[in-house]
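Chapter review: from sequence to fold.
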Amino acid sequence: MLIPAFQLRLGDRIFGPQVAVLVLRRARLPATDRLEVHLPAAVPISAAPGDEVSLELDGGEGAELVFTGRIVRIRRRLDAVEVVARGGADLLARTRPVLALSQVTAGEAIRRLADAAGVDVAEVTDGPTLAIYAIDGHATALAEVARIAAFTGATAFLDGDGRLVVSDPAIPSPPLALRYGREILAAEATEGEDSDPAPVVTGEGGDPGGEQARWIIADFNRGSPPAADAPRVAMPELRTRAAVQAAAAAIANASRARARAVRLTTFLIPAMAPGTRLSIADMPGTVNLAQATVHQVQHSVAADGMALTRVWGTGFQGRGTSLDSLAGAVAGALS
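The token string follows.
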């Protein structure tokens, strides 16, 4: 039998069995990771807001670092002490950088935004080349990272070390295998309407005096005209038709995926993180779910031994469109 465990560091002290309840939420940007810890009032805590926090979870198969951040609030009550910590996304949200860059990849622009916020970078896909990238301090680094990641349908999140990850959608990671009755305790899948018209993405258009400058207007009227209610998305940093078409495909795929919402409850699985691809087996016929992608995950551990992972994401039935086919469509658009 697998026995879950954890190790929590608040400031310079390590906590384990003293903790009554802890809940960790990890999510794709622009949402922020959040750790909430409840301890009995008698447990001495010397940590203060601003101190570093880290959390390791063990579902019974080895410990894994799942969160690194800082304390943002401590609430002391007569019966308990509550500690709230946030991750690196909080630093991105507090930073409004001023940058003017030319001929850089989307990945390099993201790295510069993370550097301005004091956030370390792990893996960031390069993506398309941006002719000009300029921000004037009105937008947060968090909003900009999420927006630029959308150019290629990449998933942006913070890893367990608190480092920024922007994954490459053309190189999907191996799926995490789950089985109903083994890891999965509860599941639901919702199918919504996905008939929204495909977006029309426009870029800056290149040299105003050159032939390339006319491609924006040409694309609006190329072949069958777009639907009257099709959303127009301006991405002025993009100056090639291929980059704009890839962005439009990524936005359309994300819209279709949102129409297929998935919720899962499993035993504690520390490896579950935003962007994790799931392969699901032996689901009952009422929830014919075969694949899913994690958007948000919540790990919870209580003193009574209850340890669960809850997942929110998007997924597909075995007989319908698969995540692999969507990933292939995005990869084809990027090639």
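Two observations follow directly from the output. The longest strand covers residues 63-76. The longest helix spans residues 241-258.
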